[in-house]
Amino acid sequence: MFYRPSEGHGLPHNPWNAIVAPRPIAWISTRGAMGDNLAPYSFFNAVAYTPPQLVFASTSAKSDRDGTKDTTAQIRETGVFCVSIVSRDLIGAMNATSAALPAGTDEFQHAGVAKAECETIPCPRARDAPASLECRLVQIIPLLGKANFLIHGEVVGIHIRPDCLKDGRFSPPDRLARLGYRDYCAITETFELTRPDET
C-alpha cells in the first residue's frame, strides 16, 4: 500500500505510530511552581556524544497548560529536567504516570514511584530507574502541527544504578521500548557487531 499522510491511510489504526520502532522511553521529571511532575515520552533519543545531548518531543496539549503539557510548561519555567530510563519492572508505574492528571498533581505520589533529588539541577528523579540523566534545556523548537514541540537538552549529570554496571559497561537487566499502538517490548537479548574500520 501507499498513502499520503495528509490524505489519510484508511486503516483502523495509524501505521505511522508503529513504523519507527522500537523507541526508547524517556520518563521525564520536572519541578516547577505547581510542584513535581513525572511523565513518559516515546519520541525520544540521544543525539550527540560531546557534550552529551538528547531530544524528546511533546505532541499534544492539556486544557490547563496553555497549549502544551505539564512537562514542557515546567521546562519552560525552570530550564531543567531529568530523564529516567524505564525497565520492565517499572512499566506499571510508568503507565500510571501517562494519565492526563490535573496540573499540579504529583505523579510520583500518584503512581507510587520512589523519588530522589538530582545532584546538578533542582529537580527530582525516579530513584529506582536503571539510569537517570540530569539535563539543562538548550532549546525548545516548535514543530509543524498544533502543540508539537522538540525539547533539546544537554546532559549535565548521570546516575547509574549499581547493579546495572557490569565489567565497566552499562548493562541493565532489560531495556523497555515502545513499538507503537499499545505494544511494548523488553529487550533482553543483545549481540556485538564490529564495524569494518575497527581493528
Automatic annotation (TrEMBL):
Signal peptide boundaries: none
A Pfam family annotated for this UniProt entry: Flavin_Reduct
Gene3D superfamilies in UniProt: Electron Transport, Fmn-binding Protein, Chain A (2.30.110.10)
Flavin reductase like domain ranges (all copies): 18-172
Classification via SMART domains: Flavin_Reduct (SM00903)
Top-level taxon of the source organism: Bacteria
Protein name from the UniProt record: Flavin reductase family protein
Organism: Rhodobacter flavimaris
Source lineage: Bacteria, Pseudomonadati, Pseudomonadota, Alphaproteobacteria, Rhodobacterales
